[in-house]
Amino acid sequence: MELGLRGARALVTGGSRGIGLAAARTLAEEGCDLLLAARDPAALDAAAASIRSRWNVAVATHAADLSTNDAVRGLAGAAGAPDILVNNAGAIPPGNLLAVDDETWRRAWDLKVHGFIRLTRALYPGMALRRSGVVVNVIGAAGERFPPDYVTGATGNAALMAFTRALGRAAPKDGLRVVGINPGPVATERHEMLSRARAAETLGDAERWRELSASMPFGRPATPEEIGAAVAFLASPRSGYTSGTILTIDGGAG
User: Fold this and answer.
1) Residues 204 and 121 in one domain
2) Based on the domain organization, do 205 and 140 belong to the same domain?
């Protein structure tokens, strides 16, 4: 399907791997020029090179730790007023209330929760001035399931869901849209790391981590490409009447 994105400019945070890279590749396939942001310059360069070699689009990179105000301001200055903002950076650690200390909780939220909000706030005025643009927040299904052993992530994701819905209600008057995606388990490096830890704890062998997927819908986690395709669709004119909506992609696990 032609999504009508050719020539658009997209900023993707956490764009060097996983869901962010998959979203960037789909957007590039649809003809978008890209600005990829992440912490690791080498990983960014590799991601950008892989995209340039396959699709005839411009790909710039910006290495930054988006947990700080200065870094967000620097990225916003480099981005200008993109047509699409994909907020995706951030990985909140697991743990229950007593296992996650204040500093860990604060660092995790500074990157993902406050990072999403700060960057959106920095770019929103320019997009509103042009009366055109879409913000896609890649959040996480823990924000609607509330697992107690992922309390920091569940609470942060629920906050970002509320942020997405509230801003998504206001955005149409500025000519903008704000939407969210709540992925369930996705086959990324982080998923493998967490699955290995869980397999070691529950099965006594980290190498048996793939067995944990047997009970999932379709017997597997989602692929990053499946989430990336949804990002591109929601960002496109094909989804032009969608705002304040959060799409859960969990295979029907509920």
Assistant:
1) no
2) no
Q: Are residues 27 and 57 in the same domain?
A: yes
Instruction: Give yes or no: residues 91 and 191 share one domain.
Output: no
Digit-coded pLDDT (tens) for 73-89 = 999 999 999 999 999 99
Cβ atoms of 27 and 235 within 8 Å: the answer is yes
Q: CA 11, 16, 18, 22 torsion: positive or negative?
A: positive
Is 232 within a domain? yes
pLDDT digits (tens, 9 = 90+) for 143-183: 999 999 999 999 999 999 999 999 999 999 999 999 999 99
Task: Show the domain range for 136.
Answer: 9-185+224-247
Cβ neighbours, 10 Å, residue 196: 17
Say which DSSP state 236 is in: S
The larger pLDDT score, comparing residue 216 to residue 226, is at 226
CA distance 213 to 185: 9
Helix (H) or strand (E) holding 61: strand 59-63
Report how many domains make up the chain.
2
Integer angstrom CA distances of residue 8 from 45, 113, 145, 153, 242 = 21, 26, 35, 32, 18
